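hiii, so i know i said id send this last week but things got crazy w the move. better late than never?? heres the sequnce for the chain we talked about at the cafe, plus the structure i predicted for it. fair warning i was half asleep when i ran it
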Amino acid sequence: MFGIGGSEILIIAIIVLLLFGPDKLPQAARTMGRFMREFKRYQSMMESTFKAEMYLSEQKAQTEKAEKTAKTGDEKDTFKKAREYREQAGIVVPGETPPAVVELEDDEDAPIAPEDAGWVPGSADAPGVQPVDDGEGEGEQL
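okay and structure toks below
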């Protein structure tokens, strides 16, 4: 420990005992313990203050950089394609306002739900689905 051997620690303990005496040695140990506890507390407080200041300075630098790029117009919108896709698909992300609902004047203009049109999505007779030839057509025998 710190390059101090056992004999050196024994010599230091004897000197401390002679200086303080056996009556005041426990009180000196308590005082030293309080000092170490306070030192550790101040050290952790300074460390947390330093980290907070570093975090704030980094945030300030990032904000200044963002403001500078916004002024020059060089900022690229990295999520532009995703936003366009969401708008086309009508997907609403939490925190965004949903698109305005369009009121139709006539029921004829309203889109028809698949169930109302008489077909089910994914079924063989659904629009856009190619009929499957299972080999059991007219005139074919197995």
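btw The longest helix spans residues 6-72. thought thatd interest u
miss u guys!!
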